[in-house]
TrEMBL record:
This is AB hydrolase-1 domain-containing protein. Residues 1-21 form the signal peptide. Pfam families: Esterase_PHB. GO terms for molecular function: hydrolase activity. Keywords: Hydrolase, Signal. It comes from the Bacteria. One of its GO terms (cellular component) is extracellular region. InterPro entries: AB_hydrolase_fold, Esterase_phb, Plant_Biomass_Hydrol_Est. The lineage of its organism: Bacteria, Pseudomonadati, Gemmatimonadota, Gemmatimonadia, Gemmatimonadales.
Length: 391
């Protein structure tokens, strides 16, 4: 996905108890889409990250902004979408000193070379229909087919995979992927870059994911994996496009790690989805099994803890941000729990209690931060801590 379209990344509101909250059926709420929420969150996330990087964020402002953004989270989960956007933009104004300016709405249906985007989609799907879907190319074929379905004339404002993708780049990539599949080869083996994909997990479940493969992975030396699990209300794009302006992708690349961000509420349903993912990754890359790491935020922290409990030998280390549960299984990987002092959604005391119940766990508290905006700094802390461990 291009940087140009990242200004409308998926909304990052996260609280496990409120998964699946929907906007009430009112005229005002109906006008606020997921894309609107995403764009608002990206504005405040970018402003917060910029102030962090410039080291111009006093603790008093940090605390005030964090409290404001967490209030927006509560509005979101009570179905007050318009109020959530307004509160988020108020937080952004606190950081920038100026009112937020929402991006202009799309001018109309998208096109490619003068033809509707959907024409390219139908061409790719027709070519894929005659490729063997039962043999070793099954996973690659599935992923390419689902990627082709994103070529729609009018993207849904409720499906981030559609409104985030640049149709020009996507069509160019698909032309190569379809051509390689037609020649009986897997187009994703050794493929470097940032891609939205889908794979088949346990029980024929389709698991959406973003995968970011650094250029350094395309060499003979085995590469590690950083698996990141977003919170409730977000999706597979969160760690790549938001959460500290995508700091996870930068740090993963610096450490020669493939970053994989699946849709947590699907992926976390069974550890067998993780098993299928690792089979896929090992088919496409030389994976260093001693360097597989796991980060989760909020709902994703709970999913990360459960996965570490179920598959302890698979991870070198795991980090839970603003959430999590005790990991007590024998041979558990080293674990880091991080709480946020101002978190009113998952209080720091709960995170600390989970850490205390986990043998050998490390607990840290972020002062002056709340549930949502702590993630960027949480990733900055977690990645160096994780990679100091090997299995």
């Amino acid at each position: 996905m291009s940087r140009l379209v990242r200004s409308v990344a998926a909304v990052a509101i996260c609280a496990p108890a409120l998964v699946g909250a929907q906007a009430p059926a009112t005229a005002t709420a109906a006008k606020v889409t997921r894309a609107d929420l995403a764009a608002a969150y990206m504005r405040v996330d970018a402003a917060y990250t910029q102030r962090e990087n410039a080291k111009t964020l006093p603790d008093s402002v940090r605390a005030q902004v964090n409290r404001t953004v967490d209030r927006a989270a509560l509005s979101f989960f009570s179905g007050q979408f318009a109020a959530a956007v307004g509160t988020i933009d108020a937080a952004a104004a606190q950081l920038t000193g100026a009112a937020s300016v929402p991006p202009a709405p799309p001018a109309g249906p998208r096109s490619l070379n003068g033809a509707p985007v959907s024409a390219a989609r139908e061409e790719y799907l027709a070519r894929l229909a005659v490729v063997d879907s039962t043999g070793p190319l099954a996973q690659a074929l599935l992923s390419t087919r689902e990627r082709a379905k994103l070529l729609v004339d009018v993207p849904s404002p409720e499906r981030s995979a559609e409104f985030l993708n640049d149709p020009v780049r996507l069509s160019r990539d698909l032309a190569r992927e379809v051509s390689v599949l037609e020649r009986g080869r897997d187009p994703y083996i050794g493929l470097v870059g940032d891609f939205w994909r889908v794979y088949r997990g346990a029980n024929n479940t389709l698991v959406p994911m973003r995968i970011v493969v650094p250029p350094s992975a395309n060499v003979r030396k085995p590469v590690g994996v950083l698996l990141v699990l977003h919170g409730a209300g977000g999706d597979e794009n969160m760690f790549v496009d938001a959460y500290g302006s995508g700091i996870a992708t930068k740090l993963a690349a610096e450490q020669r790690l493939i970053l994989v961000s699946p849709k947590t509420d699907v992926f976390g349903a069974t550890p067998e989805h993780f098993d299928a993912l690792m089979v896929l990754l090992r088919n496409e890359f030389r994976i260093d099994s001693s360097r597989v790491y796991l980060i989760g935020h909020s709902m994703g922290a709970g999913a990360a803890a459960r996965l570490a409990q179920a598959r302890p030998a698979q991870f070198a280390a795991v980090a839970m941000l603003a959430g999590g549960s005790p990991i007590t299984v024998a041979n558990a990987p080293p674990s880091l729990f991080v709480g946020a002092e101002l978190d009113g959604i998952i209080p720091a005391a709960r995170v600390e209690a989970a850490a205390k119940a986990t043998p050998g766990a490390t607990y840290e508290l972020f002062r002056h931060e709340g549930h949502l905006l702590m993630v960027g700094n949480g990733v900055r802390r977690a990645v160096p801590w994780l990679v100091s461990h090997t299995r």
